[in-house]
């Protein structure tokens, strides 16, 4: 849990770009329109810090995420909430139990977002989150 808090605390430093953390955001500032996430995926028995990471920036799509445009489109439709991304109903997964953790911390239109969820397996995670954690 402590490492999760460290990851959440350091994410703003990794995501910083256009706005200073010390500058209050107004509805028209860069911080109020920023759309970016630090994403992590790890096996359930791994610490998140030992998993895989990607930086996702939207508006315009970029960062280290290999499917940034599709991930941004999915998050745009979900109003920036990874929990509300439309499920990929075409993806069928086995019932193999090999848990995987997904974690996202970032900002969407001035709102701080923290998402963490454990899925039954990697395929189930992709089915639930579409391209967001597919990096």
Would you mind describing this structure in some detail?
A five-stranded antiparallel β-sheet has the order 3-2-1-4-5, sandwiched between helices. 27% of the residues lie in helices and 27% in strands. It has 135 residues and is α+β, with helices and mostly antiparallel strands. Strand 1 and strand 2 form a beta hairpin.
What is the gist of this entry?
With 135 residues, the protein is of the alpha+beta class. The chain has helices at residues 2-15, 30-33, 68-77, 122-129, and strands at 35-43, 52-58, 62-63, 100-108, 111-119.
Task: For the structure shown, list the relevant keywords.
alpha+beta, 5-stranded antiparallel β-sheet, globular, disordered N terminus
What's the arrangement of secondary structure elements?
Layout: H1 2-15, H2 30-33, E1 35-43, E2 52-58, E3 62-63, H3 68-77, E4 100-108, E5 111-119, H4 122-129
Antiparallel strand pairs: 1-2, 1-4, 2-3, 4-5
- Main structural class: alpha+beta
Helix-strand pattern: HHEEEHEEH
Main beta sheet = 5 strands, antiparallel
pLDDT averaged residue by residue: 82
Query: Share of helix among residues?
Result: 25-40%
The helix tally amounts to 4
Strand content: 25-35%
Strand order of the largest sheet: 3-2-1-4-5
Low-confidence stretches: 1-6, 12-28
Write down the overall geometry.
globular
End-to-end separation in angstroms reads 24 Å
Radius of gyration: 15 Å
Number of beta strands: 5
């Amino acid at each position: 849990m402590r490492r999760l808090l460290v990851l959440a605390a350091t994410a703003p430093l990794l995501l910083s770009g256009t706005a200073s953390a010390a500058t209050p955001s107004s509805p028209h500032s860069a911080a109020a329109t920023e759309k970016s996430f630090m994403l992590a995926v790890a096996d359930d028995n791994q610490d998140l810090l030992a998993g895989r990471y990607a930086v996702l920036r939207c508006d315009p799509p970029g960062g280290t995420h290999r499917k940034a445009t599709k991930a941004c489109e999915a998050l745009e439709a979900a109003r920036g909430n990874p929990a509300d991304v439309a499920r990929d109903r075409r993806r069928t997964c086995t019932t193999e139990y090999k848990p995987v953790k997904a974690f996202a911390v970032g900002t969407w239109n001035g709102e701080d977002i923290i998402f963490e969820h454990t899925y039954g397996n990697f395929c189930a995670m992709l089915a639930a989150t579409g391209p967001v954690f597919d990096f």
